[in-house]
Amino acid sequence: MNASELPLRAGPVVCARGLRMEYGRGPALVRAVDTVELEVSAGETLAVMGPSGCGKSTLLHLLGGLERPSDGEVWLARRRIDRLTENALARLRRGAIGFVFQAFHLMDELTAVENVELPALLAGQSARSARRRATELLEQVGLSDRADHLPSALSGGQRQRVAIARALSNEPLVVLADEPTGNLDSTATLDVLRLLDSLRSAGQTLVIVTHDARIAATADRLISMRDGAFVEETRLTHGTTKRLGELAGLEG
Amino acid sequence: MSEAVGVSIRESSQGYQLRVVQEVLLALLAAEPSHGYQLRARLQLALGPLAASLNAGQVYVTLTRLERAGLVASERVGQTDRPDRKVYALTAGGQARVAEWLTDTSWPKPAPAEFHLKLVAAAAGGLADPVRLVDAQRHTLLAELAAVQRAALAEPDDSLAGLLLEGVVLRLQADLRWLEACAGYWTATKGR
């Protein structure tokens, strides 16, 4: 299952119903995710913000099938995924979901282009078409000239862009990003921000968990999370230029 | 009472923009005499999408005021294919004013005191949950950050206006970071 097989207007790409994740029991019970209802439409970029420990990473893991919920349902496109077998879930993660992590998680002994083509190879594509796709993706993230470099020869920002290219390898239904700029300085953050914004413009469905206001501000919709639950939701549309003048101090 | 406060805020807002435009026009004229159209074009280049918040005719109105105040002097210059245009130049008084502006280090003040006091009062009187007030405020600022950032991303790399928008983005980020500190404080207080 990938984006090209998704029927148009098939409802939300990602959907959570009564989602709950609990650790421990009795007085030590922690509700990391507390009865979350969520729908992410095709082409939408959603940012989830909150202080560390609010449950946002756990939520992302549940949506991506990396962990199983204590209660509730997770749907990807029209498929319920929280009850799939381990094998089916692994297949689904490889083919339909692109993950981006704070610590990049690249294979140190593989070059940039080899890292990017890996998911396509695992999904059974021919070496040739996987390499072609990986080369295209590296171009898209502005790293064509780094294709044969090992991760150790790349800057943090470049590594994250390779990781994003890898996440796109199998044309995933959704890209799930966990603090994608958490390890980056401000220049590298800006590069990743531009890249995420171009993915948004290209219609990629994205869920980004972040505490970086700047990254969150690229989203179409923003949700704040506290103690495992959603507390505030805002649709981020383009503001008026009039208000811009006020913010810039051109009007008092 | 509240009406009086509202009026004074609006007046100072218009006065502020007027002052900024006055100062920058004088400074641009310090380089060489110029005419209204050219000055407006330079402002538009520096402000990009923010130029829309200048009032229509602001440059021309301001030049007239500056002339009346004796800070600039104008001269009519004939053109073969168009009506005459007015070329403005600085007077000695105008030059002194520019020197003063360039060395002035006063800086527009951010204003966290009001919001801070709002949280204190809300908590003290049990009027509202301060953490919720922070959440709502944060979302308002984030929506603004989103608008500014989109405008910034739309500018080419070497854009003058992009540099200004970057300044707005960074200030909003600073405010948001402070709101995070507020949320932390008032969350901790709830447990006490």
CATH domain topology of the domain at 42-56 and 85-237 in chain A:
Rossmann fold
Q: Uncertain spans of chain B, ≥5 residues at pLDDT below 50?
A: 1-11
Order of helices and strands of chain A: EEEHEEHEHHHEHEHEEH
What proportion of the residues of chain A is helical, as a percent range? 25-40%
Which structural class should the secondary elements of chain B be placed in?
mainly alpha
Using the alpha-carbon principal axes, give the shape of chain A: globular
Sheet with the most strands, sense and barrel status of chain B? 3 strands, antiparallel
What is the quaternary state of this protein?
Answer: heterodimer
Task: List the helices and strands of chain B in order.
Answer: HEHHEEHHHH
Which CATH architecture of the domain at 42-56 and 85-237 in chain A would you pick?
3-Layer(aba) Sandwich
- In what range is the share of β-strand residues of chain B? 5-15%
Strand order, largest beta sheet of chain A: 6-7-8-3-9-10
Mean pLDDT level of chain A: 90
Greatest interface: A-B, 32 and 46 residues
